[in-house]
Amino acid sequence: MRYLMMQKAGGAEPDAKLYADMAAFVEELTASGVLLATGGLDPAGFRMTSAGDEITVTDGPFTEAKEAIGGFALIEVRSKEEAIELGRRFRKIVGDGESMIHQVYGP
């Protein structure tokens, strides 16, 4: 089962301990084959909408900074419970904030 874990952008600047803890966590997940991809996201982005044959592209940002998605991890686990446990471990490392986890369907 694949899950997309998304982290809302935080206001606090990460310190050396956070970087070290996250590096160890990412290394562990990579070595175990659970982590498929990870990265940070441009807070501005752009939106595409379509109506009939017309496609419109609008530059962002669209949300307040505290609502923007700051990063993601794509994981492959055996169950929803395993995804939740990895999410809990992540939240303990990064501290206060909000994450969203969605199951990814398809190949």
Map the helices and strands:
Blueprint: E1 2-8, H1 16-32, E2 35-40, E3 46-51, E4 54-59, E5 69-76, H2 80-94, E6 99-104
Antiparallel strand pairs: 1-5, 1-6, 2-5, 3-4
Q: In the CATH scheme, what's the topology name? A: Alpha-Beta Plaits
- Portion in helices: 25-40%
Q: Look at the structure and name the CATH superfamily.
A: Dimeric alpha+beta barrel
- Major beta sheet, strand line-up: 2-5-1-6
Structural class: alpha+beta
Terminal residue distance:
10 Å
Number of helices: 2
Taken together, the total number of domains comes to 1
Q: Which residues form runs of ≥5 with pLDDT under 50?
A: none
**What is the rounded Rg?**
16 Å
Overall shape: globular
- The overall average pLDDT, rounded, is 90
- SSE arrangement, N to C: EHEEEEHE
Quantity of strands, as a count:
6
Q: Please state the second-level CATH architecture.
A: 2-Layer Sandwich
CATH class call = Alpha Beta
Main beta sheet = 4 strands, antiparallel
Give the amount of beta strand, in percent: 35-45%
How would you describe this protein?
- The chain has 107 residues and is of the alpha+beta class.
- It has 2 helices and 6 strands; from the N terminus they run E-H-E-E-E-E-H-E.
- The protein has a single domain (2-104), classed as Alpha-Beta Plaits (2-Layer Sandwich), CATH 3.30.70.
- Helices cover 30% and strands 36% of the residues.
- It has a 4-stranded antiparallel β-sheet. It has a two-stranded antiparallel sheet with strand order 3-4.
- The mean pLDDT is 90.
- This is YCII-related domain-containing protein.
- Pfam families: YCII.
